[in-house]
């Protein structure tokens, strides 16, 4: 005999089916996540090509001096090279940016103007202690180096001006320290005492600007019209201003980085230059399409569950059954929102794409629900619910620091609201029966009068 399914049993089975359907719809969500990652990789590849074509990420290291020293030790004379870093190091840079596009992708590139000033303290008695033997310092053969990633980033070859009005021409040269990769170099005869040099660099580049603070004391300023900078490196600027017209940042180190001495022999190693990449600014796109779409996908289960809960409440209170396939179509429409968002955001701005994609899904789900329930007003109930839901998601996407808090509060609010709406539902009555009422008094543990129970001998068993 086939068991009849009661109303309550049916509702329980329906709830389980909807829960399983919600979890099953996470499979296409995972597929969309994979598509977003692939598109992001493609976009990053194109952006890197654009930046490389503009000269690449800019990294400035220098100027610094290299002084040849001939050491005589045990009747052998060998050439050594001593590196001298500035006592004072100043960089003031300005970068005018633009977005350069290739197809639907774009990347920030810039034209930079950098004024660099360095003051060296040239002392022979700082060099002699580096060597145990007798040494001869060749100040007349000293060279000055300025390292850059590639000389091609320079709009023109710079000239170095000294404090005593000498001009030193620089040409492409081998980089002794290999900090940035390539170098400009020129011979600069030295005499003991302070030496001030300055130069103006006009460069191209894109993506980021980094400065290696080689001085014992460093004063570095960078200004740009880019409005969404991300400051990079292990030293934060002591002052930063970010506005609609761009940003300015100021780094100052009174005692240098402490990572390397002012004088050292180049054979002693690179002093960790390959691990320390200075500090500066990355031209960061804070409204990245792929970054925000990835974050939006983390809320996919909420966007599937909330419309399902609303429709399930319609079933509960309006006594109208909705087929699981109809639930599935609503869930698929909610998931297609993310595909619409990604494809539109690649063509227009993110806010416009979000409004168009969410508006299309809200209209489709609301009208479909009204048609299924044979009453348009019931479908229109979903409109404010979905508008509030999509508005909540957008606020979470805009606030990176408080996204977790907003998400947690939103989920808690949904649960509390469902609890409030269903607080008076008699779930047992849905099944057509109520649980048995407990008796007013429990029967005695033993029948009869407990006082008259006679003790009986326990039966004996044969050994």
From TrEMBL:
Ranges for region Disordered: 435-463
Acidic residues composition bias: residue spans: 452-463
Keyword Membrane applies: yes
A Pfam family this chain is assigned to: CreD
Annotated InterPro entries: Uncharacterised_IM_CreD
One GO term describing the cellular component: plasma membrane
Keywords: Membrane, Transmembrane, Transmembrane helix
Superkingdom of origin: Bacteria
Listed transmembrane segments: 299-318, 325-345, 351-372, 379-396, 402-421
Transmembrane in keyword set: yes
NCBIfam families named among the record's database cross-references: PRK11715.1-1
Protein name: Cell envelope integrity protein CreD
Organism: Breznakiella homolactica
């Amino acid at each position: 005999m086939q068991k009849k399914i009661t109303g309550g049993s049916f509702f329980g089975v329906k709830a389980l089916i909807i829960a399983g359907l919600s979890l099953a719809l996470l499979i296409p969500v995972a597929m969309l996540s994979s598509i977003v990652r692939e598109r992001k990789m493609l976009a990053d590849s194109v952006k890197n090509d654009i930046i490389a074509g503009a000269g690449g990420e800019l990294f400035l290291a220098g100027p610094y001096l290299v002084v040849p020293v001939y050491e005589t030790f045990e009747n052998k004379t060998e050439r050594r090279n001593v590196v001298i870093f500035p006592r004072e190091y100043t960089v003031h840079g300005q970068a005018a940016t633009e977005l350069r596009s290739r197809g639907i992708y774009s990347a920030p590139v810039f034209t930079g103007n950098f004024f660099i000033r360095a003051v060296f303290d040239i002392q022979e008695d700082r060099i002699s202690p580096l060597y145990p033997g007798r040494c001869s310092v060749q100040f007349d053969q000293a060279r000055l180096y300025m390292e850059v990633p590639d000389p091609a980033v320079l709009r023109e070859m710079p000239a170095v001006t000294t404090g005593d009005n000498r001009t030193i021409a620089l040409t492409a040269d081998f980089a002794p320290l290999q900090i940035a990769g390539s170098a400009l170099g020129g011979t600069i005869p030295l005499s003991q005492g302070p030496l001030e040099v300055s130069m103006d660099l006009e460069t191209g580049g894109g993506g980021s600007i980094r400065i290696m603070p080689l001085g014992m004391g460093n004063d570095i300023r960078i200004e740009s019209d880019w409005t969404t900078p991300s400051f990079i490196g292990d030293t934060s600027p002591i002052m930063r201003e970010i506005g609609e017209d761009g940003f300015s940042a100021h780094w100052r180190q009174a005692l240098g980085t402490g990572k390397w001495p002012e004088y050292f022999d180049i054979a002693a190693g690179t002093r960790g230059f390959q691990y320390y990449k200075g500090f500066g600014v990355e031209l960061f796109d804070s409204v990245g399409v792929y970054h925000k779409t990835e974050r939006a996908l983390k809320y996919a289960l909420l966007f599937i569950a909330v419309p399902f809960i609303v429709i399930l409440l319609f079933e509960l209170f309006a006594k109208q059954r909705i087929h699981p396939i109809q639930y599935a179509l609503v869930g698929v429409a909610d998931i297609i929102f993310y595909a619409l968002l990604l494809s539109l955001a690649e063509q227009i701005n993110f806010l416009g794409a979000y409004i168009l994609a969410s508006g299309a899904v809200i209209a489709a789900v609301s009208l479909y629900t009204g048609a299924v329930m044979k009453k348009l007003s019931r479908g229109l109930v979903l409109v404010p619910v979905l508008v509030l839901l999509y508005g909540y998601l957008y606020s979470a996407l805009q606030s990176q620091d408080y996204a977790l808090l907003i998400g947690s509060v939103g989920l808690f609010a949904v649960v509390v609201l469902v609890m409030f709406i269903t607080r008076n539902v008699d779930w047992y009555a849905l099944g057509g029966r109520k649980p048995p009422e407990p008796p007013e008094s429990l029967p005695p543990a033993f029948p009869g009068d407990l006082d008259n129970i006679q003790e009986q001998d326990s039966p004996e068993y044969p050994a």
